[in-house]
Structures are given as C-alpha cells and as structure tokens.
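Record type: monomer structure entry
Structure origin: computed from sequence
Chain ID: A
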Amino acid sequence: MSGAAMDRRVIACTMVFPEEAARALAEGVAPHELVLSGARSAENLAEVGRDPAVQGADVVFGQPHPDDVCAAPRLRWVHLSTAGYARYDVAAVRAALAARGAVLTTSSGVYADPCAEHALAFLLAASRRLPECLENQRGPRGWPDAAVRSRSALLRGRRVLLLGFGAIGRRLAALLAPFEVELRVLRARPRGDEPGRAVAREELGEAFAWADHVVSSLPEAEGTRRLVSAALLARMRPGAWFFNVGRGATVDQAALLEALEARRLAGAYLDVTDPEPLPPDHPLWRAPGCFITPHTAGGRREEPVAQVEHFVANLRRFERGEALVDRVI
C-alpha cells in the first residue's frame, strides 16, 4: 500500500446505482478517473461477466469477475459491494493479489446495523411468538390468548451463542446488551474484548447444548462451509432456536430441515439459504417452525448511498496509504 497517495487512478465500477448514489460516487472519486463497466448490474449479489474496464483499472468497486481480478495487471485494490467474498476467497485470486501487493475489502460495515437489527427482530419475533399471531390473523381469526401466552418467552436473560464476531456480530452484541443476555462468542481470532466467553471450534458442541438461541452471521469461506453440522444441531435442546443472517452455505441445510421436521428444535429464522433464490417447492418453506426472509437483512432504503460512502471513505485511506477498513485479503 505504500505510495498509494499519489497519482490519478483509474477506478472501475461494476455497479448500477440510483441517481443520488451515482452522483455521490462521481463526486467522491474525483480527481481520479471513473470508468463504468459495460457489465454493470443493479443487483448487489449479481455475478457480472468479464469486462475490459476492470482489466485496465487500478481500483475496482463492485462485483468484478474473479478472472478479471486475476488478469488485471495494474489492479491494486478491489472493494466489494457486499459483505460476502466467497468467490474471491480462492487460491488463484489470493495468489494474483499477493503477487501485485493488492488488497481486497468488503462492504461489511455497511451491513452491520441492518443485519444486526434484523437478527434482533428475529430473536424478538421468536420469543414473542409473532408469526403465530400473524397466521391466526390471516387464518381463523380466533383468540388463542392462553395458548400463545403460555408459549411466549422473554429474551431478557437468555443464553445466546453468536457464531461470528465481525461487524454484524459486534453490533448485535451491542443491541443485546440491554436485554442482559448471557453471551458466548465464536470468533476466528479471540482478542479478549468479547462481551462474553469466547469459545473455540472444538467447544461448539457444548456451546450449542448450552444456548437458548444460536445466531450465525458467519461468512461463507473455506473454514465455515457446513460448520453448523448435523452433529452440532443434534446438540441443541428442543426449546432452542437457530437464526442465520450470514450465508446459507455455512449450514448443513438438510440436517436443519430434518431437525425441524422432527421438531427437535423450537424453530429457525433464516435470511439466507442454499441455494438462493430458494425454489418455491423447497421443503424448508413448509418446515414446522421455519420462517424465511429472502436475503433482506442487509437492506435499507439508503443502502446504495451507504455503499458509496463506505467506498469513498476507504478511497481516502487508500490515497493516504493507510490501512483499509473491512480488509479480508
């Protein structure tokens, strides 16, 4: 990164932004040259095709094709528009970036607040049995007050296991603090500043058995795929809940479906699945106690502007030769 604060750079963008965000991007990258990729997409999770604009860039913002990342001779920095980076976390991309002294960052910070609030909403909805009341309103419109009250619970004081303690996990822990929950945290590299006991991977079985709520914000990576295994799900108590706002591939989804159908869990709230979109006839849609939102946890009306602001703030750091926020490679 030394010497980054100097020349005018070519910055390629693979995203299509609405007017306000596009204007903020054009103004924010000045005096650098902004090149709009011919393979741009307005879908944040879309995989765009290869594009010469990326191959001639010094900096790329968006979702460039991994082969372009490997081939671009001048590329010094890739900033992804998503929190996830699984398709770049491969040997070829890592080697190409390392050979140029280039780095890859994500927009994880953009999604910390919305994903954490979504997870908190999941936890509260499960505790207060909100879906049951909605189903009743849309269906028989009875008055099952005694039954719902008897199944309701407090979130306050419960045992919560956080799988992942990146930007989302840290923000969720802060949101949970007023509820005085007891936290345990799985973190790739514990630092001693966790707001609860840090657990190692070999301790996860005991932690799953301990928890009332297991909340995953894990990214998809080589070490996290199917981390939530059949063996770990089997350790959960019948009254426990599982929540996922990370990535669907981190869960053995067939094992989760089996546990739900056998009613070995209280239920699951999923914002992510494998695959996505989840086919309409997939049995998870009908599994007892399973509630699905279509990968909306990171969304908010201001998302495009927030993405641009996050990139531009990192660009200023890049210009000054400083460490970049949300660096993963």
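Annotation 1: The domain at 10-106+301-320 is CATH 3.40.50.720 (Rossmann fold).
Annotation 2: Residues 1-5 have pLDDT under 50 and may be disordered.
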